[in-house]
Amino acid sequence: MAAKRMIIVDSGATNATFTIIDKGTQQQVTTHGMSPYFIDAKGITKILEEELLPHIEKTPDSIFFYGAGCATPANKKIIKEGFKPLFKNTDIEIDTDLMGAAKGLCGNTKGVACILGTGSNSCVFNGKKITKNNPSPGFILADEGSGSYLGKRVLQYYIYKTFDDELLYKFNETYNLEYRQILDKIYRGEFPNKFLAGFTKFLSDNRGHFMIENILEDGISDFFTQHLFKYGETWTSPVHFTGSISWHFKDVLLELSQSYEIELGNIMQTPMEGLIAYHKKQ
């Protein structure tokens, strides 16, 4: 039987969404992201104290946390140590954001689940567990199709002056960034992946320009070839997507899926709605 009071968490590197379920009511709260690669247990506790606790009236029986960077026992421990000081008597289950995406997108059915947000990832889900997962080595080495990956392309086009005069002017007017400032943000900044992903707004704001469309199509196509093409199930099961990039550029996903003869399934901004339905059934 599902817990009477529970919290479901979907946390990326940028934001975390909490759905607080208390019997027949539910409330949603957004906080800073809590990836253990970028924040320690004390930092997590601080976020929870300042951004979540003011919205909680009663202690939940269970917390289901799905987060970026939670694939290893050590990183799961960081998350748990961040929650435990505030939820001593609560059962806390921690799993990857990929498992959260799989449950939220596929429910109890077979499918391929993909995340295209600040970072990217994918897996084959058999309705109960993840059976295949192509490695996702992070934004420095890969994260094809993600916000950080596309943001890098924007900066490359700007720095190399590949953009035409129109886009160079718009970029300078929008960001007013010097070359050295860009390098400092990337190599010395606190969250370089978020900084890079922020430039996807420039892509959204300038849709229709052939250079913008090339960045989007090439960057997201790289995700298809480096991830989806590695799974035979890509052509036998629906392929589902979640994350900000999936949501805002779903027309590109549709065109690429049709081109590669792939059955496109659900596209959700976040998997939260699916996760709520999944846990209410348990």
UniProtKB/TrEMBL annotation:
<keyword id="KW-0808">Transferase</keyword>
<protein>
    <submittedName>
        <fullName>N-acetylglucosamine kinase</fullName>
    </submittedName>
</protein>
<keyword id="KW-0418">Kinase</keyword>
<dbReference type="GO" id="GO:0016301">
    <property type="term" value="F:kinase activity"/>
</dbReference>
<dbReference type="InterPro" id="IPR043129">
    <property type="entry name" value="ATPase_NBD"/>
</dbReference>
